[in-house]
């Protein structure tokens, strides 16, 4: 498997990975238009993992909040490729890249699915007082104490 930054011509396919979960009844065209015009999507860098046949198997977006603080979001896998470990592998590799290459001390995400999935990738749920965007759960992977950090707003 290979991990790399997404190319511009792959962005609509990346958006469509989450269509079945996040579209809220929109048409495919309006969903892609909504994603294309999303200010938050314009602020991040999209990453993807290719399977053994060089097919895009999962994607996520990385945000930089501060010199050593990052966020990961919009983790998605095409419906026909789910439960094969692609999202887990992509997330683990991206976190390692952020920590080892970019010296990240904190990586946040907001879980809209089972937090147990992210706990397997080294994330912990922040305490109740740090949860501001229910039902999403703010989680952290960090080399420092979570008490000394302020979670970013929902991204």
Structure description:
The protein is an alpha+beta fold and 155 residues long. It has one domain (2-148): Aminopeptidase. It has six helices and seven strands; from the N terminus they run βααααβββαβαββ. The protein has helices at residues 11-16, 19-22, 28-36, 39-43, 86-100, 115-119; strands at residues 2-5, 45-50, 56-66, 69-76, 106-111, 124-125, 137-142. It has a seven-stranded mixed beta sheet. The longest helix has 15 residues, at 86-100. The chain starts with a strand and ends in a 13-residue tail after the last strand. The relative contact order is 0.14. The model has no long low-confidence stretch (mean pLDDT 91).
List keywords for this structure.
single chain; 155 residues; alpha+beta; Aminopeptidase; 7-stranded mixed sheet; 6 helices; 28% strand; globular
What sequence of helices (H) and strands (E) makes up the elements?
A: EHHHHEEEHEHEE
Computed Rg: 15 Å
The CA-CA distance between the termini, in Å, is 28 Å
Fourth CATH level, the homologous superfamily: Gcn5-related N-acetyltransferase (GNAT)
Overall, the morphology is: globular
Number of helices in the DSSP assignment:
6
Helix content: 25-40%
Query: What's the architecture, going by CATH?
Result: 3-Layer(aba) Sandwich
Main β sheet profile: 7 strands, mixed
Counting helices, strands and paired strands, the structural category is alpha+beta
Question: How many extended strands?
Answer: 7
Unreliable stretches covering 5 or more consecutive residues = none
| Residue-averaged pLDDT | 91
């Amino acid at each position: 498997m290979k991990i790399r930054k997404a190319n511009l011509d792959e962005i609509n396919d990346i958006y469509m990975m989450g269509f079945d979960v996040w579209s809220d009844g929109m048409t495919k065209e309006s969903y892609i238009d909504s994603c294309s015009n999303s200010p938050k999507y314009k602020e991040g860098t999209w990453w993807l993992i290719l399977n053994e046949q060089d097919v895009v198997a999962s994607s996520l977006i990385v945000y930089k909040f501060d010199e050593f603080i990052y966020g990961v979001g919009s983790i998605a896998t095409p419906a026909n490729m789910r439960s094969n470990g692609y999202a887990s592998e992509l997330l683990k590799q991206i976190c390692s890249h952020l920590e080892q290459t970019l010296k990240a001390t904190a990586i946040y995400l907001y879980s809209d699915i089972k937090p147990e999935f992210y706990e397997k990738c080294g994330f912990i749920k922040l305490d109740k007082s740090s949860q501001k965007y229910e039902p999403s759960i703010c989680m952290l992977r960090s080399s420092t104490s979570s008490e000394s950090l302020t979670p970013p707003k929902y991204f």
